[in-house]
């Protein structure tokens, strides 16, 4: 199973096995990753799963949808060029090994 690494605000790194087709938000909330709230359950309306995608993976992700782009303008931690919503990052073989840094704060 492909892995994703979450880097929490305190620097703790957690590697998770993530099933193909599962969003990183769902994997994070199911495994108690600190800082990923996912209040809307993945409906792309809360921005509480804001992450910063590490170098080497952003170009492997699908293009950002207009709704995600708009929501990222209202994140608590402030948008960066590598900002994405974890609910919109769905595990696939092409992003196996992805590393994301959890935005702090989320709310």
Give descriptors for this structure.
single chain, 107 residues, alpha+beta, Ubiquitin-like (UB roll), 2 helices, globular
How would you sum up this structure, described in words?
The protein has 107 residues and is of the alpha+beta class. The protein has one domain (3-102): Roll (Ubiquitin-like (UB roll)), CATH 3.10.20.30. Helices cover 12% and strands 21% of the residues. It contains 2 helices and 5 strands; from the N terminus they run E-E-H-E-H-E-E. It has helices spanning 24-30, 66-71; strands at 3-7, 13-17, 50-53, 83-85, 98-102. It has a 5-stranded mixed β-sheet with strand order 2-1-5-3-4, with helices on one face. Strand 1 and strand 2 (13-17) form a beta hairpin. The N and C termini lie far apart (31 Å). The mean pLDDT is 96.
């Amino acid at each position: 199973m492909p892995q994703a690494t979450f880097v929490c605000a305190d620097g703790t790194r957690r590697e998770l096995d993530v099933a193909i087709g599962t969003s990183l938000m769902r994997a994070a909330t199911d495994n108690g990753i600190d800082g990923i709230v996912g209040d809307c359950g993945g409906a792309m309306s809360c921005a509480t799963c804001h992450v910063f995608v590490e170098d080497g993976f952003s170009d492997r992700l699908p293009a950002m949808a207009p709704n995600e782009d708009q929501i990222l303008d209202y994140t608590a931690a402030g948008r960066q060029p590598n900002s994405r919503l974890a609910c919109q990052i769905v595990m696939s073989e092409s992003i196996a090994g992805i590393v994301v840094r959890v935005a702090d704060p989320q709310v």
